[in-house]
Amino acid sequence: MRELFHEIASNLRNNKLRTALTGFAVSWGIFLLICLLGAGNGLMNSFMGNVSDFISQNITVEGWRTSKPYAGYQEGRVIDLDETDVTWTEGQRWSHAVGNVARQTGSTGVTFSLDGNTVAGQISGVLPEYQEQNKIKMYAGRFLNPDDLKERRKVVVLSLAQAKELSPKDPKALVGKWVGAGTVSFRVVGIYHTDESDMYRTCPVPYTTYKGIYDTSNKIGSITFTVDGPETKEEYEAFEKEYGSALRLRHDVAPDDRRGIWIGNGYTDNMEMNDAQRIIRTFLWILGLLTLVSGIVGVSNIMLIAVKERTHEFGIRKAIGASPAEILKLIIAESVTITAIFGYIGMFLGMIACQIMDKTVGQRTVDIGMDIGNIRMLVNPTVGLDVALEATILLIVAGTIAGAVPAWKAARVKPIEALRAE
Amino acid sequence: MLIELKDINKTYDNGQPLHVLKGIDLSIERGEFVSIMGASGSGKSTLLNILGILDNYDTGEYWLDGKLIKDLSEKQAADYRNRMIGFVFQSFNLISFKTAVENVELPLYYQGIPRKKRHEMAMEYLEKLGLTDWASHFPNEMSGGQMQRVAIARALITRPQLILADEPTGALDSKTSVEVMQLLKRLNQEENITIIVVTHESGVANETDKIIHIKDGIIGEIEENKAHTAWDGTMMK
Fold first, then answer.
1. How far apart are CA A316 and CA A420, in angstroms?
2. Which CATH code for domain B31-58+73-224?
């Protein structure tokens, strides 16, 4: 083994160009693969991170206006959900699919005022779970808590856009201050990041407070619940159809009247996102494998030429006593040595490139045009050492197999023919 | 009897069959210095390749040192070549990226002899052939005569019983040719190594003790040449 190693070392040393070319092909293949996987991972991480910020997995149910006549009622009737619908949703019938159920009151438009500044807002009574369900990110202060509900505190959470209107110089200073809202006043307990959608113009106040001031009936604005059961889109859709029809019938609404009682879901959106992720991941793998294949083709090409070029040398070796097995051993050991050394170098450089990518592009953020904050295009665009090693070993094995075919042929050439080759 | 050929036939089939050796019977004693002479296409190189187990034959028997050389596996053939035969080629066939001493060492590598021992032995043989100073030079840094002497050192290092030289002076000038032939003659006399030289030059053949003429695949005259008078010219090209 040591003798073989010395023989290989001297062969490689004395054939620098060939060694360098083969080595370059291997290094380059691994380098590209690692960079590609790194960038792909970064994109994935960023995508998943960002998506989880925006997509909730909740179902929201709201009463709207009927769009078709049913059960003796004209179309255009306003449907109000009430507390009994919440209890019904929480009930035994749906327990196989429904998780936590939360409710929200309707909303009331008010004008907030402070020191002569005013801003419009929609006050809505919510539960503390609202923050989690709607992925609300706090800019300052806190969200509503259970004590706010228990004590029916007159507290409100404003959006950053609204806070800027009321306190242009220092929105943060608004926290703890009382702001006017028509005939009542609310103390601001927190400010949250907003995007442009209507949902975020909502100014949450405790559910109980809202019920005490604006709406003393048992009507509610919307029901929001998480879904635990359905795993596939089909299962979910079947559930939504069954639930929706049953709920509509409770209110004498046509079972297929989607405008009478509206059901919105982030759940299938989330599934679609998962699909998108899967597609991107598959795509990256295909790209990666193609890169790997091109690396393997490069290695085997060079091996083929190298072996062909060395036919005469193998003829000499055979004439002076090398058996076919010795020739095969020599070629394969040389190719393994080259691919291992240069594969390692390529892997090392690739991982450095990933680190550089992380420190440069990875730190760059993109303003997506909302107040919600900037997002990073690439998050941690690196490849785990295990994946890198696997890829390198794969290339070494593939390179060896690629080299073994011409090596096997070379080993079988009759010495007299090999000697004739020039 | 070192070599015994009995009715050796060899046919090449490249499109149309070419009967190259048509029943060769030949015996060569241990310690002989023999040349095989013939025009190109006479089959002399084929005969040498068969003698060197570089090529196989179709029918007949080839006995080398009491062993029947027939239907050998590649591995066995390689082993016999390594231990029993030393080759000297017209174009030297040194490995270009190896130094002189590395080239000489190579047959011992395939015998599994440790590096240090190999190196010592190779240096010893290079010294014998006056090439000590050239040990670490590459073939392209040497003259033809030096390269051929390196090749001879490589052929000798396994202490073979037989040296096969295929036109050993073919690529050398006349002065060097004489030196190489003198060297082979000395090895034959001093070390008692059997040497078979294939050539088409009468001057080269004249240096050997026995000249075997081959023509159209059959052995013609076998000339005893102990007095080296088969050819009256001086060895020049």
1. 10
2. 3.40.50.300
